[in-house]
Amino acid sequence: MWTQDHELFDLAHVDTVTVGVFAWALTQPAPDVYDFTTLDAIVERAAAEGRDVCLATGTGAHPAWLARAHPEVTRVDFEGRRHRFGQRHNSCPSSPVFRRLSAELARRIAARYAANPAVVAWHVGNEYGGACYCELCTAAFRDWLRDKYRTLDRLNHAWCTMFWSHTFTGWDEIEAPSALTEHWRGPDHTAFQGITLDYLRFMSDAMLANFTDEKAAIRESDPDTPVTTNFMGMYRPLDYHRWAPHLDFASWDNYPPDDRSAARMALTHDLMRGLKDGQPFWLMEQTPSCTACRDVNPLKRPGINRLWSWQAVAHGADAVLYFQLRASRGASEKYHGAVIGHAGRADTRVFGEVAQLGAELSRLGGVSLGARTPARVALLFDWDSWWALEISDGPSRLVRYQQVVLAYHRALWDAGTDVDVVPVTADLSGYDVVVAPALHMVKGDLAQRLEMVAARGGSVVTTFLSGRVDEDDNAFLTDVPGPLGTLMGVRVDEWDAREADVVNPVRLSAGGEELEVASRLLFELVIPQGADVVGTYRADFYAGTAAVTRNTFGAGHGWYVAAGLEQDGVSWVMRQVLDRHGLVGPYADVADLETAVRVAPDGTRLLFLLNHAAVAVEVPACATGVDLLSEQQIERGQPLSLAPAEVMLIKCDGAPAAP
Amino acid sequence: MWTQDHELFDLAHVDTVTVGVFAWALTQPAPDVYDFTTLDAIVERAAAEGRDVCLATGTGAHPAWLARAHPEVTRVDFEGRRHRFGQRHNSCPSSPVFRRLSAELARRIAARYAANPAVVAWHVGNEYGGACYCELCTAAFRDWLRDKYRTLDRLNHAWCTMFWSHTFTGWDEIEAPSALTEHWRGPDHTAFQGITLDYLRFMSDAMLANFTDEKAAIRESDPDTPVTTNFMGMYRPLDYHRWAPHLDFASWDNYPPDDRSAARMALTHDLMRGLKDGQPFWLMEQTPSCTACRDVNPLKRPGINRLWSWQAVAHGADAVLYFQLRASRGASEKYHGAVIGHAGRADTRVFGEVAQLGAELSRLGGVSLGARTPARVALLFDWDSWWALEISDGPSRLVRYQQVVLAYHRALWDAGTDVDVVPVTADLSGYDVVVAPALHMVKGDLAQRLEMVAARGGSVVTTFLSGRVDEDDNAFLTDVPGPLGTLMGVRVDEWDAREADVVNPVRLSAGGEELEVASRLLFELVIPQGADVVGTYRADFYAGTAAVTRNTFGAGHGWYVAAGLEQDGVSWVMRQVLDRHGLVGPYADVADLETAVRVAPDGTRLLFLLNHAAVAVEVPACATGVDLLSEQQIERGQPLSLAPAEVMLIKCDGAPAAP
Amino acid sequence: MWTQDHELFDLAHVDTVTVGVFAWALTQPAPDVYDFTTLDAIVERAAAEGRDVCLATGTGAHPAWLARAHPEVTRVDFEGRRHRFGQRHNSCPSSPVFRRLSAELARRIAARYAANPAVVAWHVGNEYGGACYCELCTAAFRDWLRDKYRTLDRLNHAWCTMFWSHTFTGWDEIEAPSALTEHWRGPDHTAFQGITLDYLRFMSDAMLANFTDEKAAIRESDPDTPVTTNFMGMYRPLDYHRWAPHLDFASWDNYPPDDRSAARMALTHDLMRGLKDGQPFWLMEQTPSCTACRDVNPLKRPGINRLWSWQAVAHGADAVLYFQLRASRGASEKYHGAVIGHAGRADTRVFGEVAQLGAELSRLGGVSLGARTPARVALLFDWDSWWALEISDGPSRLVRYQQVVLAYHRALWDAGTDVDVVPVTADLSGYDVVVAPALHMVKGDLAQRLEMVAARGGSVVTTFLSGRVDEDDNAFLTDVPGPLGTLMGVRVDEWDAREADVVNPVRLSAGGEELEVASRLLFELVIPQGADVVGTYRADFYAGTAAVTRNTFGAGHGWYVAAGLEQDGVSWVMRQVLDRHGLVGPYADVADLETAVRVAPDGTRLLFLLNHAAVAVEVPACATGVDLLSEQQIERGQPLSLAPAEVMLIKCDGAPAAP
Fold it and tell me: Which residues are in the Glycoside hydrolase family 42 N-terminal domain (chains A, B, C) (predicted)?
């Protein structure tokens, strides 16, 4: 079968393979036995065939013998139940035996294969995630807390334990927050936000330690080959911003929830690119056809695999890989899409499309490798705010962090604006516009840095439920929006939350433009403290009061969106902001025609046009250059026609602009 | 901050403060250390400022050190899981160490503060509730059963254990009924209703013992100051009728599910007033603005806090308090509404409305204190029937006790009739009308007492699913409705249950009035045994048969409503009944204009008018007197206009009557 | 009360009673005490009254003392929780003490009553089902696996453990697949289908061993009286085809989900009759009026109990019994319908209808006893395919085995065709048509046997998701549909799954007939390999491609239905097939008029006509003979009128045929 695999890989221009991701039981079949026979054969064959290898340490699932010998290596779940051997991503991150053996396996694999030039990257673990609530993790949590707070007084103050008689008088009184302690109705409902927030941070750090354990072991024999692990995009349990410095490059697995996810994927790519300051990433996994893990697993339509792969490249991917190359014979992923199906055919539609894309990418060579996105807009993405917002009791469980962020990013995406999605600690000095949706928690000097953006003429946009809590999730004992109040020029005393079917229309008005849009879920009542009113509520007892404001701050603006505007309202606001800075893209009014720009290390400017619409679009060219896919010359202004799912990649002679 | 608090309390006319509710960790920071320094300061300051103090024992949540030292003090949940330290209301009621230490704390607090004249009430525990299923509770349950049944034969008979091979041959074979024993699909699905019912009774008693433990400890040093705990209205787990004799006055926390709950709140106030035979109660908690614990937490509209506070007074409250006075800095209630927000402002809308109401209440002085409601209608509310109905397998899980009771109470409320909501053991001799919705269980001499009501000319109303089981939840081995059959003059052999979307219209007809209304969920097939048919089904194979009957019994009537009538049908039936007794209020046809009467100890008759409608209403005055709020003289028959949320409190010269 | 019972039994023509089903606590009140006093009295009285007795061993629920003395006798649930005493069907099937004591009880009961001629059948246990996940079961599972696979290599291959590092290196590393090991989101979501599938098989076998334990004990003293247990129709946890050889006759309890279940009940009766190769079965339980265990328990309409009882007879029942004869006084079935209600009346509608049916059955005598159904159509029903399909990850959780089977059976039922529902191991040589819906797993020589059906001129019909996996649930490494490909003449490379609201219309066309129907949920993309295209998709990128095909194979056909056709599409396909073989019944176009034929041992041909419609139907008679119910002579062609719920039982002079 390997021979057939490699023949088909050649047909499909597969030049890089990830191997060994779940090979622990294979490579260490017993406590004292390491056996690399099969892995040797796989790597040697791949190398011999001229393929690059992304070599996994294989620690994403432990072997059965380990769970039998050390029951504490399995996890205890949120419900307090000790699991036994099964599934994957099943190791307690605090288990000493897991930490020792996983590092040892990584050490031996690195020692064995580091010298093989085919190995171009190390793949540690797999899709880190989940959580453990065992005694070992509880003990480790206490240590983590001791490191952080030093004294119980500081911890009690941070967690506001005076509330509900929670004052801790000994470190060993502290429990992991779970269904058996602080939680009810699941992980988002906690009696003590501070405890839960710290446990989320701790668990993210604990798994990061598993990663760095293995990376350190690899570095013992290989000082250079880059090390990564495959992230999962907007994955709530892990704060990838805390992880990113420890990876040599970012990589992620793109399994969008449905086939209407173009904007969502764009955001996620931007987030992944932002992890390491704009450095290109790998798309480590995607299905060529369908998933298996969903209740309903639709098929990718013709052209979609190609379109989405190019979208990844457009947003910063330097590599595009698949899961899976050949369909598993059995178990839970046997129906997950594969480049090569169970019958081993090369004449399927799916294989054909993979091969066509492979050929294109081969033909393009390295033109986009290492290219950067020249964004002048930053969107702040903050795991702490995500966590704090969604574990909060009140004002509304219906307000979801991702939905708010998606709406603001989508407004930018629709406008054809390149965006960097960055952590709150990022350097903001290079951006014209900074958007901070639902920035619930404001930490450190962020408020001052946002003020500096506005002071020098930039625009800062934030929304309802921003500026509410400090880094311990305690309320600022000031007017809302806390440290953002000066920049925003508003004060919020009250807020109203309503069921999803309640609409309060908002009348937006600026520069002669007017629009009435719907808002839902959350309605803050704004008392302007110097800000201009741009939008007003039209209903309820607060009809006529401010729903959207713009405050002049230095040479720039602070925008405050107090209402849960629907997409058209968000888009209207963002267009006002982008217009001021001349950042609206050339096809902002063409629905689902995505544009993205990358600038290669040699200065080459690449313009990607991606038609996500179900219909063909016709637009005038916004740049002069060569479409590297069709190899046709394009003159600015000439009519371009893109069929559904069509892609153009124009190597531009100058900067693109509205034609 | 305390100084600011008291300045603001003065502005808001806050004259009473509840303190120390969750102070256990503060007042007993270690097993052998009691420290009242902070509580002393709080109480002394409050007293010095001239405020009354409702002083809590603070045992609603145990301290972390206690859970660490005595793991058995935490609860085991319905799923059989031992909890660890967290949340509140977290103590096993059967735990000896909890019982000892909670009583000891109450003892010490009472000893320390009993002499302080500022202390006007003792607040024991907090919102007792939940349940525990641990070994200690199981053992205590067995003891409770032994006390109740004396012999296993009696227990086996009561529980009908012959069914499904359940005969118990030793007391220690009995388990607490939980997800691990008799239950599936949650607490309402049990294989043995009798076991589950007794456990509900036992658990209510076990928590009551926690209350009486502390009360007894308080009484050691304070023989007089009244002792209460804050109830939660229609709260299923605790039989407040069994608790009420042990409280010196009732108090409760009013957090209605939504802002359309005026009728529901009226019922709940009536229920709380009925706990102690009509004696006034305290409204111990309400939010001035919004809750935080719901998925969606809407804001109270302008005027609503005042309207609802006056509604409490109208139904028997002698005190109106808030939770919370100042917003918590952190944890799960930091977004719960507060009189004083995080910024400490007095110029917010919410503070302003609280202060306005405070001023009104101050101005009124004690005019309504100790006043009683002169109701001639009693509605029976019975925890045993609630439990029995809702843990029953068949005929319909969709029939919910509260919904049935709410519909009948609402009919009375809409009609402007004062109602006492009383236990089945109440003296019924003073009532013209007794309504017993869904009285599933009929105990003791209740049937005879109801017959006496009718015999002397009164009206008794009951419904489907009444008179089905005895106090052990065993079916009466007679025709349905069991002991109510003679009074009702009907027999029921069959009953049909249908999904919520199935309607059977019922044609109602009495005294020349006709109406066709919808009925749903449950349809009993009635064979009249002397009763007159007032309503008939219009559909299905039982079309034309009786759905509502009225039986002449002595000088009065027994009404049987066999169908799940919707509100308009229930209201029609109740209007027939009230009309006969001349009990329809003056504004029965004015939607959402509530009236309530209280008679002060000096005979002063107070008429409350509360406009719950979203629009202004205009009505002729039904009484002559003085509106104590506007200080205006009112002449009977003069037009009155009440804006939305407006309240009038008329000190009447005579009894109100239709103008 | 027994006296009244027997008087009423006489009135109702109750000639057989099942007794002792949950009598363990009664017959063995302590470890060393057996007491048959009460059971003696019951059996003696029944015998004296001339009634037959179906005598239960009473082991469907263990006594409380047993659970107390041997906690391991209770089950551990899927969530890993050890249960304590409660409910019923509560014994761990692997518990040695349960196995020993249940067999001993059966042994003693058989020894005591075997000689009593009133005992006509033994009823072992009750509604076997559920599952256990305890240590004892885990150990027994390992033994079962060792017996099956002999070596771990074979097991690892069968379970495809190379996936996700699951290779087992010791038998004791294997865990029962549960929420604590391989599962998430419940029993259908498993990481390893092979493990879960084998546990389902093991658990079915383990409970079967409980049955055979008791049967063997009975056989020690009674070599002849037939032994059964009451099945539950389409009950997923137990593979009744593996059980059937061990029962002397099949019996089952018919509690359909609603009153529109006529077709479903027909399928289930056919399945039960097919368990023992067409041998008649008993309808062991049905309610005369209503259930109690559902959320909503509607009443059986007038005539329905009779109609459904006759339907059972029409499909092969030789006995029709009720649960319950007298209503339980208490516990969870006190509101379950009963022949005799709590009041003990004979003048209720329900009792009257039971008595009417009893009189009819008495009058008919033994005319239908032992009769067989002369079906020429077989429908394959396969627990392995059911399990494999529903525990599969991908392609769609919305495709449910029962729904697919129901649709194909319903098409046959609507067409008035007698159908045998048989296991995949059945002898197919006698059938003209074999229908295999969703035959996910193809085992042994089944594909060849299906080919033989077609080769000799028969028609074989299968659908999407058939022929996918081998008996270990591993994918066939060939084109889909695996071993069925040759017979079907198609190849499937891709499949699309969509949410339930997505419709792809299918244009069907054959023999000049055309129809456009809806398909949903699953859409396989068919590449014909010789088959004719009968139906084509009308939408999506695969519009115009094959959705239904018919392949000529030998003298017959293989039909492949690749799309999730709605009922009208399935019916159209099946009518094409039946037409070819002349198997469409006389009233195929009369909605809800069911026909069924049984041929008695003496050759008498009985035609049942059952009107399930809510309206009367008029049809010409399709046979000449005598309606045994009305005792009227029928001439073929004469008009017959059947009121709603009416039944005719025509003893035919010849074979029925379209009039």
Answer: 2-363
